[in-house]
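User: I'm putting together notes for a lab meeting next week and I want to include a structural view of one of the chains we've been expressing. I don't have a solved structure, so I'd like a prediction I can at least talk through. The sequence is below, exactly as it appears in our construct file.
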Amino acid sequence: MRLFLASGFSAAVIARVRELQTFAAPHLGGTVKWVEPDNIHLTYAFLGEVPGDRAQAAIKSAERCAGLFKQIEVRLNGLGAFPSLERPAVLWLGLAESSPGSLKTLAQNLSAALAEEGFMPDLKFEPHITIGRLKAPPAPGITGELRSKAAELAAASVITSVEVLESRLGGAGPKYKILNSTRLL
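Assistant: Thanks for the context. Below is the predicted structure for the 185-residue chain, given as structure tokens.
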């Protein structure tokens, strides 16, 4: 099973993501695969393929760590891309925190807890919401227009829990199943 640890967002944040996707779609045409509203999340750690009997160890890590953190207020904070806005392959919206560094600290603690259980999570963490994956480079100037639109978007959310999710890949895109949810303080 493919596992990852993540948190979801408020309806207001998801609505703003959809607004940007709707604005961007005519500019990008069929060159982008958009993240579906039900799949919008903040990933802390992607574990990849994990034997089914190891899922409990991932859940234990999340429970041990997440319950030590207070809820985190976040707001949308502009458009970004991996590897860069000049050569975008993945479009994302950044997140600003009410207590800067809280998400990074949470992600680092989750990674450490996972490592203690024998997992090897990616240690790079940039708080963001992936909104789409580009299949081809956009026309010149498009990312500037998208950045301007993203700067207008205002929405906030409170990160209230950390979920361990299973990702099932299919022809219509991934489907996520929450295996466990641990509330933040």
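A couple of points you could mention at the meeting. The CA atoms of residues 168 and 175 lie 5 Å apart. The first strand starts at residue 2 and ends at 7.

User: Perfect, that's what I needed.
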